[in-house]
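Predict the 3D structure for this chain.
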Amino acid sequence: MDVQTAAPTRVALMSGDEYRESLRRLKPVVYVDGQLIESVADATSLRPGVNALAFTYDFALRPKCSVWRWPRSRAAIAWSTACCR
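Done. Predicted structure below.
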């Protein structure tokens, strides 16, 4: 199959909560400072990173912000960063 003739694929994105649940379900083996982490989604030491990734999933699902277009001016940059608050 040629790249130019390939049909686009649509994939449903997870929400932030679904991302956390997938971490619980998959149970990755993770060590932090030599200690085994039982649940990556619930570990206090990993919470900021998990929350940041969950936020990106939720952000991508917002209708206003799901399509990113490169702004042509500084005014457009200011608008695009404020549109989804």
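The beta strands are 30-32, 35-37.
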